[in-house]
Amino acid sequence: MAEIRVEHLHKTFGTFTAVKDSSFTVHDGEFFVMLGPSGCGKTTTLRMIAGLELPTSGQILLGGEDVTFKRAADRDIAFVFQLFALYPHMSVRQNIGFPLKCVGTPKAEIKRRVEETARILRITPLLDKSVSGLSGGDRQRVALGRSIVREPMCFLMDEPLGALDSEFRTLMCHELRSLHDRLKATTVYVTHDQLEAMAMADKIAVMNHGVIEQFATPQEIYDHPATMFVADFIGSPSMNFLAFRGALAPGQQAVTVDGVEVAVPAAREARAEADLVLGVRPEHIRFVSDGGVRGEVFGAEYLGTTQIVTVRTAGGTVKARVPATVPVATGDRLGLAFNGARLSVFGKEDGRAVRTALYEGAAHG
Amino acid sequence: MSGLTQAHSVVAPSTASRRISGAIVIVYAIITMLPLLWIFATGFKSQSDAIAYPPKVFADPSLQGYVNLFTTRSRQTPEYMASLPPPETWYDELVRKQNMVIVGPSKFGARFMNSLIIGFGSTFLAVFLGTLAAYAFSRFRIPLADDLMFFILSTRMMPPIAVAIPIYLMYRELGLSDTRLGMIILYTAVNVSLAVWLLKGFIDEIPREYEEAAMIDGYTRLQAFRKVVLPQAATGIAATAIFCLIFAWNEYAFAVLLTSGEAQTAPPFIPIIIGEGGMDWPAVAAGTTLFLIPIVVFTVLLRKHLLRGITFGAVRK
Ligand SMILES: Nc1ncnc2c1ncn2[C@@H]1O[C@H](COP(=O)(O)OP(=O)(O)O)[C@@H](O)[C@H]1O
Ligand SMILES: [Mg+2]
């Protein structure tokens, strides 16, 4: 078990930059998730940590040791691939035992450890089956088995649940996290699915175009998104953005959106007059009959205890999550009131969050 | 009642269309097999039966063709024949009935051996080199990889015989004319481009995660290649090997041009087996029959791979 430190990691393919000046530290025993849309460089980063790809520049340290240019086999890591990469010509037992066989472990020892691993993953009855007949979930367990059997310093997983159907995914999410809690192994987990990330991670790095936009705990990322990209990417439905023009002075506690005064957390920095964006999570919106930002109900999506109501305002379409008991009908005109303590303000140009009371103490990506 | 409601699948062929396609396959098989059967039968006819007109479909079986194929004989006077001790073996007897005696073995055995060595040798080399090259093209970032692949393919765009004269002159200078090594090199050179292209397709189909997983687990790249990639590429390698072997085994033009003695292969040798008074057709047919056997055996041994392989990996997973 060990700490993973990545410093100023950079990777280009020809003229294309896949990973740009990435730095982060995963502490011993942490479950770290790299989250981002497809093509943002998650796999490339993971492959560099694994030693399957050499960085263009930067450094990778595993347990304090510089392994940047070491062979994959010498890094003592395990990698779970999206496609599981089980060998079709081997049985489950041989697949799980393969890493031990690679390094010349005695037969009896392999047998003992394979069986122990199978017990942990509850796949003992499958041991002597061929892998080609297994269901997706069982294949995933075998792939996991192959990675934990060697008791490596850390686990790297590249969208390991991506190939499963959603029913299995929720189950495996849970299993993975409880497995991690038992093994306490440092884990780097890559996914484009925010729900997976939120459910499992101790820390999340949100990536976009090869850049880490924010590195923080799931809660911080949700509550204090450092950039508009993060705010938009996390949450379902995602954060509402209301554009407005204005200036900010330290201590200022309100902005004017669409001619309406809206309370915001006290600003901690000055901004000259510019195009700004107010970020509002759907659950921080209430409907009021008088005042507020005016809009017209466009539609509602009933979710049981809550409903997502789409409202058209002059500043754009807004989605609000309100209790299902609130009566709304398409065409209703109403006002939107916001929970002033939980709003974010972004610069439209750079997409970065303005520092406010809400962001105090939060690590600024 | 249930007969009326029987569902019919939109993808599975109907019984009628299956019968028709079955019939077409059988007719086609008969058309292609007939000449081979005729050759096979001719090998067991006597010389006179072989050229009888109208043709004899059923003749008294005779091993004369095979005996003539493997021996050289000389005609003797009846007096000399009478003076000989009784024949020691069945083939002695067969030859003496034609008023001849065996003076020694023919060159067929040696020619056949040449074909085996050159055919399998060049196939092995082409597939071996092709697999390594295809793996490199498939997995590594090689500068100008696409251009190189095209260059490799371009060596096949012209019929090889178009460069026969330069090769003939070059081989004469290098002392490779009429040597097994020369023929192995030549056939390897012709086949390796096909091998690289076919095998690259197969290896591209194998997810690289397989060998990467093995490399993370402690194998070197070479070990991962041998123990993970090769077993999975077996199908493609087998199919490629058959294509290469068929070319090298049947090749005629270069064999005629570059070999005449030591390294002559069976194809130029078989058609010129001359008996007394013209072609010895039963012997030619016997030689052809034997010549077909190795390739049939090889194909049958690898047929399990071949069927999947010839679809060029399209049905993997
Ligand atoms: N070997 C490669 N050669 C060229 N470009 C690559 C290579 N690997 C990845 N890329 C590019 O780098 C970008 C990031 O890829 P990747 O790390 O796989 O993204 P992610 O895993 O986040 O979806 C993609 O645009 C991809 O096309
Ligand atoms: Mg990826």
Write up this protein.
The complex is a heterodimer of chains A (365) and B (317). With 365 residues, chain A is of the alpha+beta class. Chain A folds into two domains: 4-223, P-loop containing nucleotide triphosphate hydrolases (Rossmann fold); 228-347, Nucleic acid-binding proteins (OB fold (Dihydrolipoamide Acetyltransferase, E2P)). Chain A is built from eight helices and 20 strands. In chain A, the strands form five sheets. Chain A has a six-stranded mixed sheet, with helices on both faces. Chain A has a five-stranded antiparallel sheet with strand order 15-19-16-17-18, with no helix packed on it. In chain A, a hairpin with a 2-residue loop joins β4 (57-62) and β5. In chain A, α2 crosses α3, α2 (92-102) packs parallel to α4 and α3 crosses α4. The model of chain A has no long low-confidence stretch (mean pLDDT 90). Chain B is mainly alpha-helical and 317 residues long. Chain B has a domain at 109-272: MetI-like fold, CATH 1.10.3720. Helices cover 66% and strands 5% of the residues of chain B. Chain B has 15 helices and four strands. In chain B, the strands form two sheets. In chain B, strands 1-2 form a two-stranded antiparallel sheet. The longest helix of chain B is centred in the middle third of the chain and has 32 residues, at 108-139. Classes of the chains: A alpha+beta (365), B mainly alpha (317). Chains A and B meet through β6 and α2 of A and α10 and α11 of B. Adenosine-5'-diphosphate is lined by residues 13, 16, 18, 36, 38-44 of chain A.
